[in-house]
Amino acid sequence: MNGRQRKVAGWAGILFVMLFVAGIGLSSVGNSPSLDASAAKITQYYQSHHAGILVGELLISLAAVALLWFVGGLFAIIRQRDEHGFLAPVVLASGAVTVVLGIVSDIAGTVAALLAAQHRLADPSLTRALLELSTGVHMAFFPLVALTAALAAAIFQGAIGARWVGWVSVLSSAACLVSVVLGNLETNTMLPPAGLLGFFIAVVALSVSMLRYRSPAPAAGPAACRQRPRTSSRTPDAASAGTDPPANPRMTHHGHQHSHTSTAHPINPAPSLHLMSDSGS
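Now predict its structure.
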């Protein structure tokens, strides 16, 4: 994973926290009814606050997309350090399940607000079902337990982030587990925000770590020069032939020329002997 991808994932984590907090603030306007409230009270709540709920659910849906991008960056970083480990797949799977459950809750709240705005939310069973789906956030805490625990293990292994972020992830995992238990008990009490708060702190800290990442510098020039292979003084023809070059190429050239000349014009002593015999006679 290169530096640019790390920075994009870091900004995605910060954007997730900002969008989610803004969406929760807008969609939680007014006194939301409890799960055992009457259908008429639930319908009245959606009719009175449908505008804020629609905008808030839209922001939360965008936050879910940003979270998925951030989790993908974490997966790549952890996988790069430990290619055959199990932490990277756990982070990716738990993050994806968290996003899916969050989107399902957002869709339920959006549908209820749209029907209420059009005065078509008249079926009591449908009204209660939409409320249960939109407020069933405790189901999203279950994959958050696995996600924060896997993040803590990866941080303690040195894959990313500081150790204090790992301890925050451990506390966040424990708080999310408490939220799961309270939600399954159907106590109709407000789920503790400690799990989400710890998760937000961990996401922001890891995002800052991604944004501050600097790619390792390439090797210096002098070192590369020192490691340059030694060149041979042998000529290309001699090197290809596997023989040593001649000591004096000039002399060798003349020697070859002389040999060539003597071969082309051989000395024939026969005519000299024949002239001597004629002069004697």
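The first helix runs from residue 3 to 27.
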